[in-house]
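Input record (one chain):
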Amino acid sequence: MVQDSKLQIPVSQKLKSALKKKADALGFSSSNEIVRVLIQNFVNGNIQLAFTTNPKEEFIPLLDLETEKNIAQSLREMKNGDFDVLDFRKDPDALKKLLE
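The corresponding structure, as predicted from the sequence alone:
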């Protein structure tokens, strides 16, 4: 394998040791090999990262503008009483009506 440059990542000895054990258990020849595989898969789009808030804090989802607009419109309709109520207990066809 031809290498153009080295990537140096400072990590604690404890983390490095845990990485080495995990890499060995998965059949990798070294912790560097597992890092190369992870980086390559991240760059190729096979691995995606997601960041979330602390579950102890109130979760506020991020919405796209169209969804936010639709929710705001629905809330206005509900406030004005301009909406239909589907009672699934009284009307067994309510789900079918909702999907039409």
